[in-house]
Amino acid sequence: METPNKKELPHDPHDADNNKILAVISYLGFLCFVPLFLKKSSPFVQFHAKQGLVLFIAEIIISFINIIPFLGQLVWFLAIVVFCIVSIKGMIKAWDGVYWKIPVLSDYAKKINLD
After folding, report:
1. 54/21 Cα distance (integer angstroms)
2. How would residue 113 be classed by pLDDT, with cut points 50, 70 and 90?
3. If we measure between CA atoms, which residue out of 64, 43, 61, 52 comes closest to residue 88?
4. Contacts by 58-62, CB closer than 8 A, 24 or more apart
5. In Å, how far from its chain's centre is CA 16?
């Protein structure tokens, strides 16, 4: 995993401590919208909420593969298992107050601008 540099991700320990629960909620599917719009002033929550949003979108996209008999269903099942593991790891990292980048998906999350 690549370690974020200080310029890229501001780390305010008070921000992480005060907003852990909202950051954890970010990885619970459509609930990512709650912290995304509720805590716009928190860089920590926004980081995790944007990643949660991209993960949720990826889950929706992969669900369309389930339409394809057998092979599509197998790919869908494996992807859902991976998404669950990534969500759990994201929740753990958010609870620990850590900025953790989801491989590949974090690049898309950085592009989201809600200002």
Report:
1. 19
2. confident
3. 52
4. 58/83, 58/105, 59/29, 59/83
5. 15
Question: DSSP class of residue 7?
Answer: T
Could you tell me the residue ranges of all domains in the chain? 13-110
Q: Give the separation between CA 71 and CA 4, rounded to whole angstroms.
A: 37
**Cβ atoms 107, 2 nearer than 8 A:** no
Confidence band for 15, pLDDT divided at 50, 70 and 90: confident
Residue 47 to residue 109: CA distance in whole angstroms: 8
What is the token pair recorded at 70? 């057998």
pTM score over 0.85: no
Give the separation between CA 104 and CA 1, rounded to whole angstroms.
11
Q: How confident is the model at residue 14 (pLDDT cuts 50, 70, 90)?
A: confident
The string of pLDDT tens digits covering residues 37-85 is: 998 888 999 999 999 999 999 999 999 998 888 999 999 999 999 999 9
Based on its alpha-carbon atoms, the radius of gyration of the chain, rounded to whole angstroms, reads: 15
